[in-house]
Amino acid sequence: MRKKLFCFLFIAYFFIVLPTGSSDKDYYPLSEDQLWEYEITGEKPEQSVNLRFETGKPRNLHGYEAMPLLVSGPTGRPNVVFMSKNHIGIFQIGGPQELHSALPSEDIPSELTYILKFPLDIETSWHNKHPNGMELSQIESISDTVTVPAGTFIQCILVRTVVKTSSGAQQSEKATWFAPGVGPIKEVSQGQVNYVMQLKSFRH
Predict the structure, then answer these.
(1) For residues 164 and 8, is the Cβ–Cβ distance under 8 A?
(2) What is the DSSP letter of 192?
(3) Among 12-16, 125-129, 159-163, 170-174, where is mean pLDDT lowest?
(4) Domain positions in the chain
(5) Cα torsion angle, 136, 51, 66, 177, sign
(6) CB contact burial 21-56 (16+ within 10 A = b; e otherwise)
(7) Which residue, 73, 99, 93, is CA-closest to 30?
(8) What CATH class has 2-203?
(9) pTM of structure
């Protein structure tokens, strides 16, 4: 069950606005040598797992300066995702890849999955393809106060995401909070797999 929860989180991820006029870097910082550590709790305490996200050195990928994000969890097999941004928003390039020392760019899919879209304000919405249909996201708040093991954060942004099947049926829903200067700090998911993810520590 622990591996199932980790795999679902990895596919659904990476947990992801800003008050109007703020810098996107404040709410989703992407620079070298950053570290996020999270605790994810399932429906039962024994389902708890830890996730670790660490940035590496940027590289050119399909014409974008992409930041590699090394993801480590209970499976013991680290993976990497590539994050970048443009004038439209912040996005992931392709999907999770097995970690290799020199992963060829042509082996990484070029499809973009947006985590945030601009303008980063209430009611901004976007959609991404999902293995089970479509993923619909919308910013619902830019002023939440959220407490997690890493501390209490103010002026957090809340993004609510719903996954719908090709027939239009809702399959799952998650709420993700982002703190200024830190990034994603909490995520609550209900549906296919129920879990709560909270930030334990952050290094920048």
Answers:
(1) no
(2) S
(3) 12-16
(4) 2-203
(5) positive
(6) ebebebbbbbeeebebbbbbbbeeeebebebebbbe
(7) 93
(8) mainly beta
(9) 0.83
